[in-house]
């Protein structure tokens, strides 16, 4: 029975890892459909290479920082108990690699390629696992301090803060350091619209992310005996709430409609294991509304050229999700309890602080040394031709 349990746990978390790995295709197609046609190839290549760089950084550095585990041992030792520890690394890697995937959408169309790969390595190797270890592995005694101060530890079941808020706030720093795409905002105050290049691809990306998210959330239990149908239903309700709210607030705009479910799913990650489904529905609806309002304000009033809206979607909806877990996770509102609003607020603010400070150091150093953005002519020609020497479609057919 013990051998069967070990094998089942390994398969369970492996399926979760594969589902979250598939989400990176969602990131790629969401970005591909949102950017202009001259940057579609760049969107696809960035996500693929970023994931591979993340794998190396997390394998050799990040996982050890977060969990104190290394893989510098013989294969025979690593394969013990069906290799569960290896598959667990795979699963958590897919979370870590979401950080550069999130950032990629914000800095699209004008970022240099190699400096972003360097940023990916540093973020996944050092910045992300530093907070991951605090939230999920009791590092620095902060969780114990929060429990003493507020009665409960900071609760983030599947990463509203650890993954999404951190990624979103890192993305905001990167976007601000890069500046807006040339021609996006005029000196006279005008705004040049850059409409999505492909709504079908944008929608495909949203659907792939939404489906994979059930692996992201449900498989965060990490062992099969801890699987919870409540997590699945809460994720579903938050997704529906986010979609309906974005549909209404966004006046049936397809970009908002397809980002609405993502906003709801971002927000529900933290408290999906402790909320009542009605609380999850409200959490998702609030997130969908928040995304529409803040995306509009960010782009049109503050003139921050966050191409996919990664700061409102991940940074702000993720922060809301961390706080919402402290509200709707309480027994008084139908939750399971075991959570304190004070700890949720403190943990959320700490995650934002780590993200902003870490990103400022990483992107500030890269900007000062090698630069972050393409030259004006390269940006005009598009990231596809300037970086990859090929466009997404052929201008002409060959004779053969």
In short:
This protein is an all-alpha fold.
Describe it for me?
With 400 residues, the chain is mainly α. It contains 16 helices and no strands. It has helices spanning 2-34, 40-67, 75-78, 84-96, 98-106, 113-137, 142-150, 160-178, 199-218, 229-249, 254-268, 277-301, 310-328, 341-369, 376-381, 383-388. Helix 1 packs antiparallel against helix 2 and helix 11 (254-268) packs across helix 13 (310-328). The radius of gyration is 21 Å and the shape is globular. The model has no long low-confidence stretch (mean pLDDT 94).
| N-end to C-end Cα span | 62 Å
The general outline is: globular
| Percentage of β-strand residues | under 5%
Helices and strands, in order, run as HHHHHHHHHHHHHHHH
Looking at how many chains there are and whether they match, the oligomeric state comes to: single chain
Percent range of helical residues: over 70%
Mean pLDDT across all amino acids: 94
- Total of helices: 16
The largest sheet, given as strand count, sense and whether it forms a barrel, is: none
Low-confidence spans: none
- Coarse structural class: mainly alpha
Rg for CA atoms: 21 Å
Number of strands: 0
């Amino acid at each position: 029975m013990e051998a069967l349990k070990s094998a089942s746990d390994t398969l369970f978390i492996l399926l979760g890892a594969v589902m979250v790995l598939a989400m990176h295709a969602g990131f790629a197609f969401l970005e591909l459909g949102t950017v202009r046609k001259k940057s579609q190839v760049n969107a696809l290549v960035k996500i693929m290479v970023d994931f591979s760089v993340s794998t190396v950084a997390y394998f050799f550095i990040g996982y050890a920082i977060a969990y104190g585990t290394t893989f510098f041992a013989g294969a025979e030792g690593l394969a013990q108990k069906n290799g569960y520890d290896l598959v667990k690394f795979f699963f958590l890697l897919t979370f870590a690699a979401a950080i550069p995937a999130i950032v990629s959408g914000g800095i699209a169309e004008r970022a240099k390629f190699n400096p972003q790969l360097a940023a990916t390595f540093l973020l996944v190797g050092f910045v992300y696992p530093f907070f991951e270890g605090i939230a999920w592995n009791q590092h620095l005694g902060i969780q114990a301090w929060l429990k003493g101060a507020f009665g409960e530890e900071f609760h983030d079941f599947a990463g509203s803060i650890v993954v999404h808020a951190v990624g979103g706030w890192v993305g905001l720093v990167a976007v601000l350091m890069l500046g807006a795409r040339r021609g996006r905002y005029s000196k006279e105050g005008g705004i040049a619209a850059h409409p999505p290049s492909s709504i079908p691809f944008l929608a495909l990306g949203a659907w792939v992310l939404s489906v994979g998210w059930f692996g992201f959330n449900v498989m965060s239990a990490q062992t099969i005996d801890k699987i919870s149908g409540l997590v699945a239903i809460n994720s579903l309700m938050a997704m529906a709430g986010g979609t309906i709210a974005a549909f209404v607030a966004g006046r049936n705009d397809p970009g908002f409609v397809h980002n609405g479910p993502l906003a709801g799913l971002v927000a529900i990650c933290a408290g999906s294991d402790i909320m009542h489904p009605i609380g999850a529905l409200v959490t998702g609806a609030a997130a969908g509304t928040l995304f529409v309002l803040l995306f509009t304000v960010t782009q049109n009033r503050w003139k921050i050229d966050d191409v996919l809206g990664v700061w409102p979607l991940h940074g702000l909806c993720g922060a809301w999700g961390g706080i919402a877990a402290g509200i709707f996770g309480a027994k008084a509102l139908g939750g399971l309890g075991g959570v304190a609003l004070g700890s949720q607020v403190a943990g959320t603010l700490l995650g934002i602080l780590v993200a902003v400070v870490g990103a400022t150091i990483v992107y500030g150093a890269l900007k000062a040394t090698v630069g972050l953005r393409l030259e004006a002519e390269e940006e005009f020609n598009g990231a596809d031709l300037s970086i990859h020497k090929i466009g997404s479609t052929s201008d002409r057919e060959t004779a053969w």
